[in-house]
Amino acid sequence: MKVLNVSILLILFLSGCVPAVQQPVPLPSEPFLVIAHRGASAYAPAHTFPSYELAIEMGAHYIELDLHRTKDGKLVVLHNDSIELNGHEVEIDEISSDVLSAFKPAEEFNQPTNEYASQKFASLRVPSLEQVLREFGDQTNYYIEIKSPDRYPGIERQLIDQLSDHHLLDRDDPLPKVIIQSFSSDSLKEVHALSPGTPLIQLYSFKKKAKLSPAKLKKVSRYASGIGVNASVVTEHLVNTVHESGLAIHPFTVNEIEQLSSLISMGIDGVFTDKPDLIITSLNQHKSLN
Ligand code: G3P
Ligand code: CA
Question: Which residue range or ranges hold the GP-PDE domain (predicted)?
């Protein structure tokens, strides 16, 4: 029966009735991408409007968003799966957006030891994806992480529909308006099937050494345009192997000039950073020296 199914599929494919899976779009080789990790999150509370505004002012190419979904189905932008509310840890998918609106993301940022702490952040709330897209429209580019997709069935379709409603997909800009990233390959494959023109980044995190063989990366290149990986495991050999598979590489999270210089000499294509200003100044100096 299985052989019969495969034969039927092959006949349909050869006759043009089944569309071939579209190859991922390659990311442009220039410019070196500065991805504002949770916004300019060294200077303002992560994933808040001030953090994104600062990142855009500083000239970051992308603002990075981490995505979750509340119990009432709203896509919201924050890092963790859970928050502490009234002394209790609560999961985002178990609370409504109304309950989430009581959470103050600045409280963690506004520690006395933080030189950037400010009372002006105290009233900030967790934004919804809709609020972010309405606020910034097409004045920036979005690098969106689907967090914990197993908790949020159908999040891929919901995200693509929302981005499409804002006319952010399948455009002809020098840089893609939207890049989508995830640690989940299943989630990315689903996004690729729904929106093959949207570049995807497969995320990895390794403790000591990156375990990414050419064969593994070849498989990734069937649905993704690049990988994101913790900077501490990036080597020149890894960068070359990734590039030989036709993928870009964006290490996270780079906030030191020395680390940036070392990674640039290895040939990386961009970085996630909490300090877009520092990275951009350093890149400009690097350019004027070369
Ligand atoms: O998305 C790249 C990087 O942000 C992954 O780590 O934990 O900061 O979302 P995290
Ligand atoms: Ca992230």
Answer: 32-283
Mutate to test the pocket of ligand 1, among 145, 188, 202 (most ligand atoms within 8 A of CB): 145
pLDDT tens for 150-162 read 999 999 999 999 9
Residue nearest to ligand 1 atom 4, measured at CA = 37
Q: What is the pLDDT of residues 152-189, one digit of tens each?
A: 999 999 999 999 999 999 999 999 999 999 999 999 99
Residue list, CB under 5 A from ion ligand 2: 66, 145
Active site annotation includes 37: yes
Which residue, by CA, sits nearest to atom 6 of ligand 1? 252
What's the CATH architecture for 24-288? Alpha-Beta Barrel (3.20)
CB atoms within 10 A of CB 25: 13
pLDDT in tens, 59-118: 999 999 999 999 999 999 999 999 999 899 999 999 999 999 999 999 999 999 999 999
